[in-house]
Amino acid sequence: MIWDKAQDLGRLIGQSAEYQTLRRAEATLREDSDTVAKLDQIQTLARQVDQMVSTGQMPDPATAESYEAAVHDLENSPVGQAYVVARANFEKLMAKVNQQISEGMEKGSASSIITLG
Which residues are within 8 A (CB) of 94 and not within 5 positions of it... i.e. 6 or more apart? Predict the structure, then answer.
């Protein structure tokens, strides 16, 4: 029963305007060659920073500045802004869903009635 409810919830989330908007924004991101280049640059720089941090080193100022500039450029592009807004709206939806699940769990744990259907 729980798995069926989880499937239903997933289906409803997948049909939500927030999820559909996020998917469209992701597709637009992937189709824009400038944005793809920015994302590749960000990923490369992020890997460099991660490698430095994993060895106990701080990233050099030039790498950190390049990373921040690339993220800033992406976020300020129309395609990037659309993605950031869509992502934020989807995250708000999921926070509300998680809140409702938590409230349901609290009510369920306090109830003396056992429901299996």
Answer: 13
pLDDT for residue 116: 57
pLDDT digits (tens, 9 = 90+) for 51-71: 999 999 998 899 889 999 999
Calpha distance 44→60 (Å, rounded): 15
Write the CATH number for 63.
Answer: 1.20.1500.10
Give every CB contact of residue 46 below 8 A, 6+ residues apart in sequence.
67
pTM: 0.74
Kindly state whether residue 34 falls inside one of the protein's structural domains: yes
CA–CA gap between residue 47 and residue 53 (Å, rounded): 10
Q: What is the pLDDT of residue 114?
A: 60
Domain range enclosing 53: 2-110
